[in-house]
Structures are given as structure tokens and as C-alpha cells.
Design brief:
Layout lengths: L2 H21 L8 H11 L6 H12 L4 H23 L8 E2 L2 E2 L1 H5 L1 H21 L6 H15 L4 H10 L7 H25 L6 H28 L2 H4 L5 H4 L5 H5 L1 H18 L7 H12 L3
Antiparallel strand pairs: 1-2
Helix pairs in contact: 1-4, 2-6, 3-4, 3-9, 3-15, 4-6, 4-9, 7-9, 8-9, 9-10, 10-14, 10-15, 14-15
Bound molecules: geranylgeranyl diphosphate.
The site of geranylgeranyl diphosphate has 17 residues, from helix 4, helix 8, helix 9 and helix 10.
Length: 296
């Protein structure tokens, strides 16, 4: 990756860490264990891809970064909640996340369940309690967007399909439907929320950014399937080979590794095409590159 992008993303990762640190409840406050566990699940970990997408989309519309950092934090909290719940024994039953023991291993299942619930609520508190857009109507759109992306017609719905797909052979359209919801919905929301923090785009421009977001959201998952099959646990910071172990349909099982890589490249190219004509979309372009080239 180019050094300028690495500096930009490094600065924003540090900024998001500081903001989350400030916004998460103080672990000295009752209930201390729950607050400590919320911080454990959210801080010091992860690539922060969703916040970076929100900042990059914000740059396209000249958004105030002080607004974007709140929207970006809300998305990251939803993401952190989903990882905590996904790792529970009733779902993926995983022991390692972001290079450390999963939340339920460290704090117990009941606390991990409440961590997810509380991170979810905190996300909606943030996105409704701070002024993030130019009009209350646009801000209400943001709340609705995040709710749809997280719920049964978005991420949670995709997860439900994922759970019943274990041991099944899915068609490619069925696999795509699952992933567009499970992973893609929140990635799409990250981009759109970033744009809502700035000046309003016309429908055509918004549709182009939406298309970019859909392409990188699906590409992210295709690459995730490839990494799960090919990368070692130490690099991933989570248990590698879980998809095969759990008998889950993936792009690699359906297409084979080589075709899955070609599909990721195709989505990458579509994402870049969608940005043609945007002057300030360099960071979105670089993030598309990062999403398909990442090794973890
Ligand atoms: C429990 C409602 C509910 C949803 C869970 C996101 C998810 C749905 C499950 C996570 C399982 C998984 C491996 C999904 C594939 C893609 C994905 C979201 C990977 C993790 O995201 P990264 O790579 O993680 O952005 P970091 O740790 O970098 O933030």
C-alpha cells in the first residue's frame, strides 16, 4: 500500500480508538464488569475498515470529521457487537478474536450477550444524540439506515441464513444474498453514513457511491472466504479454517480459490468504475485496493 494511504489510515485508526475510548462507558462505573467487557470487545483491535470507509466517504462530500467520527464509531460498535455474538457457543463458538480470547471466554457467556446488547444500544444512542447531519430529517434517515443495515433485513438476517446454511450446498446467488446481508449491509451503511454527514449528493451521485459500497462489501466477504481457507491463524488473529471445519458454503468451496480471486478482482474493478468522475474519492479507491489486497 502507498505510504500516504498508510499514514492517513493509521491516523484515523488512532483517532477512532481515542473516540471509542471516550464514548464507551467508564469501567469504574457500575456495572463495572459489563463496562470493562464492552471496552475489551471494542478497543485495541481490528482493522477499523468500516470507520475508514465512513471517513473516506465523508471526504467526498466535505463532511466535518467531528461528525464523521461519531457515525463511524456507531458503525464500529455495531460491528463489535456482531463479532461478540457471532463468537458465542450458540453461533460460531470461537475462542480467538482480534488476537485475544473471545469476549465470552474472558467474561462468560451471559456477560458477552449483554456486551453485544449494550454496544448495539450505545451505537443508536450516539447516532441520535449528536448532531451529525445538516437537517433533522437527514439525521433521521441515518438512524433508519443503520437500523436496517443491522437488523433482520441486513446483518442479523444474513447471519440467520448463515446459521441454517451449515452443511448445505448453496447456489452462487444464494451465497451472494447471504453475504450481501451478513457482511455487505454494514459496509454499505458505513459509506452512506459518511456521506450523510456532509452536503447532500444528488440521486445519481448517491447511487454511484451506493454501488461502490455494495461492490466493496461483497469483495470484503469474498476475500474473507479466501483468507479463511489460505491464511494462518497467527496472521488472521482469529481461528483459520473455520468455514471448512463448520462445513460452511463459501466462495472458495463453490468456485475454487482461483475463481474466487478473479471474482474479488472483478468486484474491485466495478467499485473503482463507480467512482469515476468523483474528485475527492482517492481514499475510497485506496480502501477498495486495501480490501482486496489485505492479508488479514
Ligand atoms: C451476530 C447479528 C450477528 C451478526 C454476525 C459480522 C458477522 C455477523 C459475523 C462475523 C463472522 C465473520 C467472520 C464474518 C465475515 C466477515 C467479517 C465481518 C469479518 C470480520 O470483520 P473484520 O475483518 O474484523 O473487519 P476486524 O476484527 O478487523 O474488525
Amino acid at each position: 500500500m502507498n505510504p500516504d494511504f498508510l499514514a492517513w489510515s493509521g491516523n484515523l485508526q488512532a483517532r477512532i480508538e481515542t473516540v471509542l475510548e471516550r464514548l464507551l462507558p467508564d469501567p469504574q462505573h457500575t456495572p463495572q464488569t459489563l463496562h470493562a467487557a464492552m471496552r475489551y470487545a471494542t478497543l485495541e483491535g481490528g482493522k477499523r475498515v468500516r470507520p475508514l470507509l465512513a471517513f473516506a466517504a465523508g471526504e467526498v462530500v466535505g463532511a466535518d470529521p467531528a461528525r464523521v467520527e461519531i457515525a463511524a464509531s456507531a458503525v464500529e460498535l455495531i460491528h463489535a457487537y456482531s463479532l461478540v455474538h457471532d463468537d458465542l457457543p450458540c453461533m460460531d463458538n470461537d475462542m480467538l478474536r482480534r488476537g485475544k480470547p473471545t469476549c465470552h471466554v474472558e467474561y462468560g457467556e451471559a456477560t458477552a450477550l449483554l456486551v453485544g446488547d449494550s454496544l448495539h444500544s450505545l451505537a443508536f444512542e450516539l447516532i441520535s444524540a449528536h448532531t451529525l447531519s445538516d437537517t433533522p430529517e437527514r439525521q433521521l434517515e441515518m438512524v433508519k439506515l443503520l437500523a436496517l443495515a443491522a437488523g433482520s433485513r441486513g446483518m442479523a438476517g444474513g447471519q440467520a441464513i448463515d446459521l441454517v446454511s451449515v452443511g448445505q450446498t448453496l447456489t452462487l446467488p444464494e451465497l451472494e444474498f447471504m453475504h450481501i446481508h451478513k457482511t455487505g449491509a454494514l459496509i454499505r451503511a458505513s459509506v452512506l453514513l459518511g456521506t450523510y454527514c456532509g452536503s447532500a449528493l444528488d440521486d445519481t451521485a448517491l447511487a454511484k457511491l451506493d454501488h461502490y459500497a455494495k461492490c466493496v462489501g461483497l469483495a470484503f466477504q469474498v476475500v474473507d472466504d479466501i483468507l479463511d481457507a489460505e491464511a494462518p491463524t497467527a496472521t488472521l488473529g482469529k481461528t483459520a479454517g473455520k468455514d471448512a471445519e463448520n462445513n460452511k458454503p463459501t466462495y472458495v468451496t463453490l468456485m475454487g480459490g482461483a475463481r474466487a480471486k478473479a471474482f474479488a478482482a472483478e468486484l474491485h474493478s466495478d467499485a473503482l468504475d463507480a467512482l469515476a468522475g468523483f474528485d475527492s474519492a482517492q481514499r475510497l479507491r485506496e480502501l477498495a485496493d486495501f480490501i482486496v489486497q489485505r492479508q488479514f
